[in-house]
Write a structure and sequence with these properties.
Blueprint: H1 12-17, E1 23-27, H2 34-47, E2 51-56, H3 62-66, E3 77-78, E4 89-94, H4 97-108, H5 111-118, H6 121-129, H7 133-148, E5 153-157, H8 170-179, H9 181-192, H10 195-201, H11 205-216, H12 220-249, E6 254-260, H13 264-279, E7 284-292, H14 301-314, H15 318-347, E8 353-357, H16 366-376
Parallel strand pairs: 1-5, 1-6, 2-4, 2-5, 6-7, 7-8
Antiparallel strand pairs: 3-4
Helix pairs in contact: 2-16, 4-5, 4-7, 5-12, 7-12, 8-12, 9-10, 9-12, 14-15
Length: about 375
């Protein structure tokens, strides 16, 4: 029987200490600990001398609570807690999708045109609820942080679920929509007295206009026309910025870490992320197998369970029998996790890995984040 494949181990400290590492992106499905992993990496990097900012896309307040902050805003906030004196610097922020979109408009449009856009109902709709907007704004915010040159390491906590990688598509998706046929149709009434739209949709114009107006509101056609006219000369500027950020993500200074729990669904999602990143030629560092349950010097699960059954049958040593039961369950979990990770490694032998043993309780402070950082580093 051949030996199981042993993947290369991720050297987390070498990654964080490398001055050429400027961006670390944590991605993975929901509920696997991406936010905690990102915060722990940022904290460890700051304590090792890097000037670090962690950007979370997660609207939950877990990151703020773990860092001892009441809340996070759309701008980096320095983590300053009594007794916390890192060799570097640690800052944290949470993406505010609408605020980032507004700031982008203000930066790229003149004052008068910016006011027209910001007050437009059609803009207010797409800036908060349009598919892909959150991912696009994550790209924009990352580009802003990188361009500022204030931090030498940016750690990004991506949105949960498979949409965590939608930000790779977001610039093109938003560009296609805003440059596309639907927008031209919606804006045509104001441009050519409605004849353009009527020509495109023919006799169904009234039904079409009524249906689309019902979706967004009665002023849709007018607002869309005004929006496109004000936006036309602005969108090219931040479409180019999104392209620059995309190139930044593919550069050698960026490192992607896929975070997964040792569970079938999470590892299937991890496979999707690994394959997608490879397809986009993004620099993947490896897989963080989070919340594992390793057992050292274990009595085999079946033997422990058998011994427990014998004790229970004779009624002797009930406490020892209970301990053996717990041990048997723990070993069974560890063996199951090893099989799942081995299956992933056989499918992706090129992907490095680091296992992070689960903590006995949830992380809610810097001490917990430090412990996660130590486990990431294999200490």
């Amino acid at each position: 029987m051949s030996e199981p494949l042993r993947p290369a181990q991720i050297d987390v400290d070498a990654l964080l200490d490398d001055p050429n590492t400027h961006i670390v992106v944590c991605c993975g499905s929901g509920g696997v600990g991406k936010t905690t992993t990102a915060a722990a990496l940022a904290l460890r990097a700051a304590e090792r001398g890097r000037k670090t900012v962690v950007l979370t896309i997660d609207p939950a307040k877990r990151l703020a609570q773990a860092l001892g902050l009441r809340e996070l805003s759309n701008q980096p906030k320095q983590v300053s807690i009594e007794g916390f004196e890192p060799a570097g610097d640690l800052n944290a922020m949470m993406l505010d999708m609408r605020r980032t979109f507004d700031d982008m408009v203000l930066a790229h449009a003149g004052r008068e045109r910016a006011e027209q856009i910001l007050n437009n109902h059609f803009y207010q709709t797409i800036s908060t609820s349009f598919s892909g907007t959150q991912e696009y704004m994550a790209m924009e915010k990352l580009g802003q942080l990188s361009a500022a040159g204030t931090w030498d390491l940016i750690v990004v906590d991506t949105p949960p679920s498979r949409s965590a990688l939608d930000f790779l598509d977001a610039p093109q998706r938003l560009s296609t929509v805003l440059d596309g046929r639907l927008i031209k149709m919606l804006s045509s009434p104001a441009r050519v007295g409605g004849k353009g739209l009527r020509k495109i949709v023919g006799a169904g114009f009234g039904m079409f206009a009524k249906a689309v107006s019902t979706v967004i509101g009665g002023q849709l056609l007018t607002d869309a026309a005004a929006f496109v006219q004000a936006f036309d000369s602005t969108f090219g500027g931040f479409r180019e910025r999104a392209a620059q950020t995309y190139r930044l993500l593919r550069s050698p200074g960026t490192a992607f870490l896929v975070v997964a729990a040792p569970e079938p669904d999470a590892l299937r999602e991890a496979t999707y992320f690994v394959e997608r990143l490879a397809g986009e030629r993004m620099p993947l560092v490896g897989l963080v197998a989070n919340r594992t349950h390793p057992v050292v010097a274990a009595l085999a699960s079946t033997r422990a369970a058998s011994a427990a059954e014998e004790m229970e049958a004779t009624g002797s040593a009930p406490l020892a029998a209970a301990v053996l039961r717990v041990h048997a369950d723990r070993v069974a979990v560890a063996e199951r996790e090893k099989r799942l990770l081995a299956r992933f490694t056989r499918a992706h032998p090129e992907v490095s890995l680091v296992g992070v043993p689960a903590l006995p309780s949830d992380v809610h402070d810097l001490a917990g984040l430090r412990e996660i950082g130590r486990r990431l580093a294999g200490e």
